[in-house]
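Researcher: Re-running this chain for the archive, since the previous output was lost when a drive failed. Same request as before.
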Amino acid sequence: MASRALHHTSKKLAASSYSLASRAVLSLLCAVSLYLCFSLFRKDAVAPPSLAYSAVPEKINGNCNYSSGRWIYDPTVRSPPRYDHTCKEIFKGWNCIAGNKSNAVEILRWQWKPHGCDLPPFDPWRFLEKFRDTSIGFVGDSLNRNMFVSLFCALKKVSGEVKKWRPAGADRGFTFLKYNLTIAYHRTNLLARYGRWSGGTSGILESLGYRDGYRIDVDIPDGTWAEAPHFHDILIFNTGHWWWAPSKFNPVTSPMLFFEKGVPVTPPLAPDAGLDMVLQHMVSFVEKNARKNAILFFRTQSPRHFEGGDWDQGGSCPRQQPIAPEEAEHLFSIENNGTNVETRLVNEHLYRALKGSKFQILDITRMSEFRADAHPSTAGGKRHDDCMHWCLPGLTDTWNDLLIAHLRNIRGRH
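Model: Regenerated structure tokens:
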């Protein structure tokens, strides 16, 4: 009898303890939920109110327009990062963590959120598997190298069996041996072949008063990438920054002089008209020489963020957060004709030249115009602030997210 009573009492105590434990767990879950809700509320509250363009379509041809959206601050993101400052391929001037840039880590906590959809996170393992036996070529100036390095470092972190080589005239390249995936960077400033010119045999330019300058052959691709269309399955092109570079191509002392079929184009053209000719010829060249079923991209212009003057006039980029749309308009509006006006001017030429072509446009301009905080600035190790290139890791990681999302959509359609 006593034994049964003791057993009954024990069962009551156990049930009571279980009830107390359940209530404790429930209370804890409620507390955590409230904390997360308030955390999310605070996170949205401290972020700039609206980092987005208006009147931009949310969908293009039925697909999400990943280029239209806003930057959202998330203190929990990139832990661990897709790669870090120890990746040896990062050019010293772009390594903002090693260069002790004050907001180098904060740069990674801003995440791009397209309107009406999500930009899928980068999965390096899946990328390597999906693009087995594939060759990817980045063709363009140092901003395309910025993008190339971002992709390489992300893949290198998960797959260390890499062979270093330079396919088809590339400046640098790597093959991930286990997957037979090659990525390469072909350096070219103008896409077309160019070099110093100091007079010729025809005398046409001399008769117009030209004694020195740069010869640009609008119909001949630069030798660094001429073989790339035969080699790569995916190509990403860019050009732009060098076309508005008076420090390099001074219109008086070292002007751009354009040649077509070996003959000077007369009267001599302004750089923007020369750009149109080069784009026309180079787009045609790539389309004729690309591999069957090759995927062709042309990346839009990467914005600079010099404030208070150009790079050689004391210009700087001291921002610690992304800028608002109104500030972006002030910096980049063609009507303002400011220091950074080249961004949208170049894009006007690109869109005209690519209309009706086989190229896909990789629009990184809108999302990048907000990121005045993401340049190396004084941490670039130069005599002037670097407000042109981007910190790595950093913004160009998102460019590659955009590229991969487009590749997924293209392959999905086929």
